[in-house]
Amino acid sequence: MASCAVEGGCASDYLAVAISAVCFILLLSRAILPFAVLKIPLPKRSGFWIPVIQIYASLNLLLSLVMSLNFLKFKKTYWWHSCYFWAVWIEAPLGFGLLLSCRISQAFQLYYIFVKRCLPPIRSYIFLPLILMPWIAGAAFIQIKRPLNNRCHMGIQWTIPVMSLHTLYVAILVGFTGAIWHIEFRFDELRDLWRGILVSAFSIGVWVVAYFLNEIHEDISWLQVASRFVLLVTASILVLAFFSMSSSQPLLSKVSLRKREPLSFETMGQALGIPNSGILLPREPAHVIDPDEPLDKLLMNKRFRQSFMKFADSCLAGESVHFYEEVHERGKIPADDPVRRIYMARHIIDKYIIAGAAMEVNISHRSRQAILTTSNLAQPNLFNDALNELIQLMKTNLAKEFWSSMYFKKFKEEASMRSHELEQMTRWHHSPSTRLSAVHGVDDPFHQEQES
Q1: Do residues 56 and 270 touch, judged by C-beta distance below 8 A?
Q2: Structural element, H or E, at residue 135
Q3: How many Å apart are CA 65 and CA 17, to the nearest integer?
Q4: pTM for this predicted structure
Q5: Burial environment of residue 144 by CB neighbours within 10 A (0 to 12, 13 to 18, 19 or more)
Q6: What is the rounded distance in angstroms from the CA atom of residue 108 to the CA atom of residue 177?
Q7: What are the residues whose beta carbons fall under 8 Å from the beta carbon of 431, sequence distance 6 or more?
Q8: What is the set of domains in the chain, with CATH numbers?
Q9: Is 235 exposed, middle or buried (0-12, 13-18, 19+ CB in 10 A)?
Q10: Rounded to whole angstroms, how far apart are CA atoms 61 and 23?
């Protein structure tokens, strides 16, 4: 026991390493499977990079504990085996510190979006390095003072401030999350968030106790073996619980966001689109499209909008029509559901408004800044000015060419066919004898009566 306590390679050490490997594999599977199996589109910007950075930080934390606490029996002969490399730089700024900073960055965004109802004043790619700076400064200070011995342990006078920094970041995360507890999130994000934080806080509490024991009681062999086992196992549970918190994943919580509220119908006829008259009519009646009508009025017609969107996409100028489509869908969200309005607004801003967005629309600087600096992301008229500008742009650059395109000709043909079918169905509905004669043989419930 005494030998492996110093040099590593105890049975409990290998068991702890195996548990940490399983936890990290579960973390990776939770990150990858929704995209590989369910074919969910990859999120953009911070929605993609923060979970990736979180996985990287989780790997650093687990690997640094294995390397610095002598879990595996090997000689430290190279510079990258150094205690300062693993226990100071990899474990602190690039491990635990980076992991907590990612979570705080996401909680910071949630706080501003859903409580303040405005975009965060600092973007994630700036906020994350800023909040990580105390960890980097602390690691540099320890590197200069060099308090670690050959077993990567430091005295209690160093252990207390180091653990205080760990506890401070946990408290900051809990504080931001507590500020949004009253928001009625859909799809149980808040419940999952608090569950993850409670599990993580418990893991960190156990982890801190084990860290103290491992650092201070260096002379007790069995305590060294037991404490480092607990350190690695609780760290493994911590990284898995942190990644399972719904705001960190585009993962399974994003799948639920793609679902729609189930529609309720009083009768089967309503569900099938059959009115009280008994005739099956199209859900959206065919309209005669007049090119002289205002474009904004024409775009209210869903079939016309889809045809116009295909034409705009073929001209590599479809972002304006797609923007109109998503703003139109946001307008259907009830006023008493501000969380969905805010979520949709953030999605539209990330996709169309911010500079360098995937489908950045061509709007004036004034309109763009009005959206980016809004004080209320839930307001229904948030995108009206930008929409008016884009409609004018579409009138100038797309509408005239659309009337002479094959897309419009095809649209007119389909509209004409729908009108003809509707006329035939209406004529059939008003002729009872025709309806009866159209039923033959065993399918006719009145067949036997007619023969008699």
Answers
A1: no
A2: helix 124-145
A3: 10
A4: 0.73
A5: exposed
A6: 9
A7: none
A8: 2-255 (1.20.1070), 295-429 (1.10.167.10)
A9: buried
A10: 13
Q: CA dist 31 to 42, 129, 153, 384, 437, Å?
A: 11, 23, 34, 37, 61
User: Consecutive sets of 10 residues in the chain, 452 residues long: mean pLDDT of each?
Assistant: 75 94 92 76 75 93 91 71 89 93 87 87 91 96 91 85 89 82 56 67 81 83 90 89 59 37 45 46 55 84 90 91 93 84 88 89 94 92 94 89 88 76 58 47 45 44
Instruction: Give φ, ψ of 414 to 5 degrees.
Output: -65, -40
The residues near 298 (Cβ < 8 Å, ≥ 6 apart) are 289, 304, 308
Cβ atoms within 10 Å of 330's Cβ, excluding its own: 18
How many angstroms separate the CA atoms of 278 and 90, rounded?
A: 71
Q: How many helices (H) and strands (E) does the chain have?
A: 21, 0
Question: Whole-angstrom Cα distance, residue 72 to residue 323?
Answer: 56
Name which of 71, 110, 50 is nearest 236 in CA terms. Answer: 71
Report which residue type is found at 122.
Answer: I
Grouping H, G, I as helix, E, B as strand and the rest as coil, residue 266 is: coil
CB atoms within 10 A of CB 171: 10
State the pLDDT at residue 1: 56
Terminal-residue alpha carbon distance, the chain = 101
